[in-house]
Write a structure and sequence with these properties.
Blueprint: E1 6-9, E2 12-18, E3 24-35, E4 38-44, E5 60-66, E6 72-76, H1 80-96
Antiparallel strand pairs: 1-2, 2-3, 3-4, 4-5, 5-6
Length: about 100
């Protein structure tokens, strides 16, 4: 699916996916957590403070798995019930900070 390369910019952690065409897609890691034995990451496009059109409310959730070969696999969460659960966990974690 996608490969990753983690990069640290000040306090923002960025993950870089490579799509099927070889293009890089940068996503900011908002949070990561385990739910029901599965690891999830909440990601969004990096926010540009100078760009008025940046959408800081756009968050995608990915289910993260590591294959036996060590390759990390990221699957977009699309199931509505799972989305509701991971959104609730993220909200609780952000409010706790």
């Amino acid at each position: 699916m996608a490969e990753q390369d983690n990069t640290q910019y000040t306090d923002i952690e960025i993950i870089v996916f490579e799509d099927e065409d070889g293009s890089d897609i940068e996503m900011e890691i908002i949070d990561e957590f385990d739910l029901e034995g599965i690891h999830y990451m909440a990601l969004r496009p990096p926010i540009d403070p100078l760009d008025e059109d940046s959408d800081e409310d756009s968050i995608a959730f990915f289910r993260c798995e590591t294959e036996e070969s060590g390759e990390e696999i990221y699957d977009l969460v699309e199931d509505k019930e799972t989305l509701r659960k991971v959104m609730d966990v993220l909200e609780d974690r952000l409010l706790a900070d």
